[in-house]
Amino acid sequence: ACPVCMSLAWRPIRLVCGHMFCVRCLIKAQRKRMMACPLCRHDTAVGQASALNLDGSMEKFMLMYFPKEIKRKKLDNEREQAIEDVE
Hints:
Elements: E1 13-14, E2 20-21, H1 23-31, H2 45-48, H3 56-65, H4 67-86
Antiparallel strand pairs: 1-2
Pfam families: zf-C3HC4_4 (PF15227)
Organism: Hesseltinella vesiculosa
Domain RING-type: 2-41
């Protein structure tokens, strides 16, 4: 689970400090110019995060064992992104 939104970490991004978050929470943090990891406060962890930090093995694991939850989280993320795009 993502420790920020307390939900399944869809498109899990692993930071240089080793902590993992969902992509939406990291995008929000980057837009707010929050560069430190929310857990350990590593000073540039969020700022350095990109698609290259996608944890592919964790994503495959979640798709295999939590397909319904992943589908729901993906739809939630798409809705949230559409709202942000309008604002």
